[in-house]
Amino acid sequence: MMSPKNFCTGLFYGNDSWKNYWEGSLKRDNQNIGTLTTQNITWMGVYGVNSKVSVLAMLPYVWTKASGGTLHGMQGLQDLTVGAKYNFLKKDIGSDQLNFYALGLFSMPVTNYTPDFLPLSIGLGSKNLSARFTSSYRLKKVWKFSASGAYTYRSNITLDRPSYYTNGQLYFTNEVQMFNLFDYVVRAGYHKSNWHAEVFYVQQNTLGGSDIRRQDMPFASNQMNFSKAGVSLLLDVPHVKNLTARCWSSYTLAGRNVGQSFSVMAGLMYNIPFSQSQQ
Amino acid sequence: MKAFKYITLTTVALLLAVVSCNKEITYTEGLFPLQPANIDANAGTWKPVAVTSYTKYSASVPTPADTSTAAYKTELATIKNLQSALTKDQQNAIAYWSDGGVLRWNQIFRELVARYNLPPAPLSNGSYIFPDVNNPFADPQFPFANPPYAARAYSYVSAAVYDALKAAWYYKYQFNRPSPYLVDKNVKSLMPKINLPSYPSEEAVMSGAAQTILQAMFPAAADEILTKAGQQRSAALLSGRASVSDISAGLALGKAVAADYIARAGSDGMGTAVGTKPQWDALADSAKLHWSKLSTPVAANDVITWLSLDAPSRPPMLPFFGTKTTTGLGVKGWMMANADFVKERPGPPPIATQDQMKQQLAEVKYYSQNLTREREAIVLKWADGAGTITPPGHWNQIAEWYIRDANFSEVRAARAFALINMALHDAAVGCWETKYYYYNPRPTQLDASIKTGTGIPNFPSYTSGHSTFSAAAATVLSYLFPAHADYFNAQAQEASLSRLYGAIHYRVDIESGFDHGQRIGGYTVNFAMTDGAN
Fold first, then answer.
1. By C-alpha distance, which of B293, B299, B275, B294 is closest to B436?
2. What is the pLDDT of residues A178-225, one digit of tens each?
3. Domain ranges of chain B
4. For residue range A49-100, what is the model confidence (pLDDT) as tens digits?
5. What pLDDT does residue B353 have?
6. Which residues of A touch B141 (CB under 8 A)?
7. Among A19, B45, B229, B310, which one is least packed by beta carbons within 10 Å?
8. CA B39, CA A100: separation in Å to the nearest integer?
9. What is residue B30's DSSP assignment?
């Protein structure tokens, strides 16, 4: 958890690219896309309200590019996320510690980008509300294991066109039903006072939606599922007080209607203590 | 632990709120039970489109039994028996088909087009195989319902249903047999009451015509087409609108009319519209020859011919769909003879090396680099590319709302869709003829830095299909609904410009295509003005 009355803020750069994708369950490439690269610069801020509650916000600027074909990339501010994390149970077990957290997030687009130009759209356009529960166990002070699961409700979206075909039928409307999401994450890490390293595994499923049809373009409400494995590193920058470097990297192991992406994200967070009692 | 309880309760409440939110959306257009403003009793005298006469089908529509006969009374008993135990599905089917069979079939075939409008995927060696009518479930599926294919399919089913319904009207007023619910007051009327003679049943006629054409055009969907058609006939029976003999005569008549359309389709030139590699190469060469014969001739070396920008390079889309008087290939028009297509073909665009074309290219590049959100919305609204109902389908969707609101009788609704779709088909033939006559390259072929806001269709640039389709459809719609002509025209203009905003067409493609489409639509309007329906 964030220390109380501390505000931690920073910028991250992310790069996600794929050449192969799953058209339903069929893995393939597409020369009219080549390699699809999505980059972002994301602002993040976290504030510790007290020892149990912190609030956070996040806003990425995203730009996409396809190395093949003729379609132009897109760019813009994507979705603003705000949320709160609550450490509702903390229990010491000898020198170990068990924690439970609840995390609620809300996100919505801050610009009127189109979700109807996949895979080059910068986002899917829905408003999302998610609830996540995390349990975390600290073993012998340095080892940390956690598991979390989240359910995400997604609002319907509207397109600029009056009809579309998905789920095996033609819809005569511009409104698209966005199915909800479920995901779980497991992590294992080694934590020292000034650095930590973790490995993680994520599985996310869309609870509905159809496959990309043969040689069709992807569609916003497709059933997009994936599992990813990755590593995450955190390091207090030496000789610079309150500055922390973080990076993540992940690779898609399996998926459905998504690209097999390799992604990295790295950035710096600066901690501003508002309370004299905390350093 | 108090906090724990609090957060748990809050979360449960939140999740319940989330789960109870209904996100289901209504996916059909809002239709309502059809009560025609006028039953068009004289439709049996309206001019046929492609059949020689309505009387030639008399064998399908024998003189019916009188309503006082025992045979007919048995038919009434059957209906009453069925009506006493209607299932929910049967009630839903009656409600669905009450909204107008012509409107419903139009929705059904738009859905088929969207489902089958997917190009073949490339093989690992970079080549493509063509969809095979004899193997429709394969990969690639048959058909690839691209815009010309769709335009032709829409026109065949619409025109066949229209001719079949006029034939039905002819026999209805010859025999004047009332609907079962009028003969026996114990037969319930579960569809809107229309005082139209019921022999032969108009539902059965259109179901027979539509199923016959659609099965031929979309063979892989034959089973569900038959199911829909059967459902329409049983809705007519269960609703008390038609008896078994009304329906069997209607089905026979609809199939007989459609058989004549199928015979036409078998020899209308579609079978050779794909062509072969040597034929495609010869087309590009003959395009150069056309340029050299212009009043200001262009040397063959100065002509840059179209190349596929798909990766891997894809064979041109239906190069022999347009009528080719020189090769004898090409698809027949409805309202235009082969010579008409040649006569109406737009003059040439500026050639790629001329300053005028460089200006055109610069304008495309400007739009490519300045795709505002407003223009992007227009591009996406009208993209109608792979996996959609195509531009002809989009114009059917626009037409549907006006036809619905006009409360047209089934036969007049069929006329409206037939006129629109025949004009759209002729627009496809004329536009494809023009495209492969000049074989002009897309902007991105001349300047690879031009990135596009929508996929580049796999055929030559000049003229714009969207412009030709939209102008032709708007011309016919403006004739049918003159009060809304400005709206149709504005929509057609917007559809046309969307292709410039998307950076896949030059302005000259759009302006020439639009003008061409209006002239093509004019042929259909000329037919409509003298078809006896006014």
1. B275
2. 999 999 999 999 999 999 999 999 999 999 999 999 999 999 999 999
3. 43-267, 272-529
4. 999 999 999 999 999 999 999 999 999 999 999 999 999 999 999 999 999 9
5. 77
6. 214
7. B45
8. 72
9. -
Identify the pLDDT of residue B24.
Answer: 75
Task: Give the CATH number of the domain where residue A269 resides.
Answer: 2.40.160.40
Cross-chain Cβ contact A216/B387 below 8 Å: yes
What pLDDT is stored for residue B298 in this prediction? 85
Q: What is the mean pLDDT of residues B129-139?
A: 93
- Candidates B425, B409, B427, B402; CA nearest to B479 is B402
Q: Which residue of B15, B107, B376 is in closest CB contact with A131?
A: B15
pLDDT at B9 over 80: no
Structurally, chain A folds into a number of domains equal to: 1
Nearest-Cα distance to chain A for B35, in Å, is 23
CA distances from B36 to A79, A179, B177, B250, B374 (A): 50, 40, 19, 20, 40
**Which of A28, A89, A112 is facing B4, going by the closest CB pair?**
A89
pLDDT of residue B290: 85
Interchain proximity B114–A112, CB inside 8 Å: no
Confidence at residue A277, expressed as pLDDT on a 0 to 100 scale: 53
Q: Is A103 on the interface with B (CB under 8 A)?
A: no
Contact: B397, A163; criterion CB under 8 Å: yes
**Which residue is closest to A131 within chain B, CA to CA?**
B11
Nearest to B286 by CA among B311, B303, B263: B303
Chain-chain contact of A102 with B386 (C-beta, under 8 angstroms): no
- B283-301 as b/e, with b when 16 or more CB fall inside 10 Å? bbeebbeebeeeeeebeee
Model pLDDT, residue A274: 85
DSSP A197: E
> Judged by CB atoms within 8 Å, which residues 87-116 of B form the interface with A?
107, 110-111, 114-115
Residue A10 lies in a domain: yes
- Chain A contacts in chain B segment 412-451 (CB below 8 A): 444, 450-451
Which B-chain residues 373-402 have CB contacts (< 8 A) with chain A?
373, 376-378, 380-384, 386-389, 394, 397
Question: What is the structure's pLDDT at B3?
Answer: 56
Give a yes or no: residue A279 inside a domain. Answer: no
Question: Between chains, do A173 and B115 touch, taking CB under 8 Å as contact?
Answer: no
Q: Which of residues 20-39 of A touch B (CB under 8 A)?
A: 28, 31-32
Which residue of chain A comes nearest to B139, CA vs CA?
A: A214
The answer to whether the Cβ–Cβ distance between B377 and A32 falls below 8 Å is no
Upstream peptide bond of B200 is cis (omega within 30 degrees of 0): yes
Query: Residue B352 pLDDT > 80, yes or no?
Result: no
Q: Which two tokens stand for residue B418?
A: 């037939």
Mean pLDDT value across chain B: 94
Chain A residues whose CB is inside 8 A of the B18 CB are: 129, 151, 153, 180
pLDDT at B296: 82
Based on the number of CB atoms within 10 Å of its own CB, is A78 exposed (0-12), middle (13-18) or buried (19 or more)? buried
Within-domain flag for A145: yes
Residue B4: which of A88, A151, A173 has the nearest Cβ?
Answer: A88
Residue-wise pLDDT tens digits, B402-436: 999 999 999 999 999 999 999 999 999 999 999 99
- The whole-model pTM stands at 0.95
Structurally, at CATH architecture level, domain B272-529 sits in Orthogonal Bundle (1.10)
- Average confidence score pLDDT of chain A: 96
Amino acid at A106: F
- The reply to whether B272-529 shares the fold of B43-267 is yes
As a CATH number, domain B43-267 is 1.10.606.20
Provide, as residue numbers in chain B, all residues whose Cβ is less than 8 Å from the Cβ of A72. Answer: 368, 371, 451-453
For residue B481, give how far its alpha carbon lies from the nearest alpha carbon of chain A (Å): 21
* Averaged pLDDT for residues B360-367: 97
DSSP classification of residue A259: B
Determine the Cα–Cα distance for residues B523 and B335; give it in Å rounded to an integer.
6
